[in-house]
Specification:
This protein has 13 helices and eight strands. By secondary structure, it is of the alpha/beta class. The chain has three domains: 4-31 and 127-226, no CATH class; 35-121, no CATH class; 273-330.
């Protein structure tokens, strides 16, 4: 089996459902999706393109500053681009399409305005890299990705910027564990610049929010160890489907593109929602009891060992209702 290539999305896929990872990555199944008609996805795609092209091919900073596009020009170009694509998008059956078109257009314009003001405040300084693709090769696996942007700050330090077009803003704590930023940090250190990024920035242009996190050696080693463990599982079990666990949840399974390949999903279809809920409740309770039994057995065995040791030390064979067996009494 060839070396597995990981990316942040594939790592998230493994965490979400191993069987889904198996179908998508190992079998190469590409399910049909509606991303091309999803207004949220397309808005993010257009904004990423505008953010990229704002600095694209501007290698001479001084010349660029003399020819910076105005915010009005950007807004006009965005409205034209959005108008071209918005009519073909799927806004759902229960919403007014024109209202939704306007809603997403205004959201995009707000993001552009915030982005422009942020860049203006930074003096329209040319980034070091834009949409930079990388591939890192390790003994067991490889890592790939594409960084939205890398900046050289005034103090000479490096910052990695990842644009996020979403309503949900990660907390600082969650950003610390973001695999994508960790991978970008590794790429910056080992390939792109051979320098450590001092700041990892999640920039939310719609809300004009920055979530800043950092990576130390231990967090990088933790991710690489996790990838080694996943890779070891893949090497050991190959294409044995039953060795890849499912992680069912209604919100994930209902929209999963691998339903036909999933044995658990097809078994669940045999049950009514009430039966599914009842069975899940019993299984969860059984797991709780099994964990409790394991805990009690462990504690019981530990106490038994301590009792035997104490009785031997005091050279007694019987205490209350506890009596040492011949084997316990003679074993030293």
């Amino acid at each position: 089996m060839k070396k597995t290539s990981f990316s942040s999305s594939k790592i998230d896929l493994w965490k979400q459902c191993e069987l889904k990872f198996y179908a998508h990555v190992l079998l190469g199944i590409r399910p049909k999706n509606n991303f091309s008609r999803d207004p949220k996805v397309q808005l993010g795609s257009i904004l990423h393109k505008f953010f990229h092209e704002f600095y694209k091919d501007q290698s001479q900073t001084n010349l660029f500053k003399q020819n910076i596009k105005s915010l009005r020009n950007l807004e006009e170009e965005f409205c034209t681009a959005w108008d071209d694509i918005s009519k073909s998008l799927d806004y759902g059956n229960d919403t007014d399409a024109k209202t939704q078109q306007f809603f997403y257009q205004e959201k995009g314009l707000k993001a552009l305005k915030n982005f422009y003001k942020r860049e203006e405040k930074r003096g329209f300084k040319q980034p070091v890299f834009l949409e930079k693709w990388f591939k890192l090769s390790f003994d067991e696996f490889s890592l790939t990705g594409r960084v939205d942007r890398i900046d050289r700050e005034e103090d000479g330090s490096i910052s990695i910027v990842d644009y996020k077009i979403t309503d949900k803003i990660l907390s600082v704590e969650d950003a610390k564990g973001d695999n994508q930023l960790t991978i970008y940090s590794i790429a910056c250190l080992q390939s792109l610049l051979n320098e450590k990024a001092q700041k990892l920035i999640l920039y939310y242009p719609t809300q004009d929010e920055e979530i800043i996190s950092y990576r130390n050696d231990s967090s990088i080693e933790e991710l690489l160890l996790k990838l080694k463990q996943i890779n070891s599982h893949i090497e050991q079990h190959g294409l044995q489907q039953d060795k890849y666990n499912t992680n069912p949840a209604d919100w994930k399974c209902s929209s999963c593109g691998f339903q036909k390949q999933c044995p658990e999903f097809n078994e669940r279809k045999k049950l009514t929602p009430g039966q599914t809920s009842d069975l899940k409740e019993k299984i969860d309770r059984h797991k709780e009891l099994q964990n409790l039994i394991n805990f009690l057995n462990t504690e019981s065995n530990q106490l038994e060992s301590e009792i035997i040791t104490s009785m031997k030390q005091n050279k007694i064979t019987k205490f209350e209702n506890y009596k040492l067996t011949q084997s316990e009494n003679t074993s030293q």
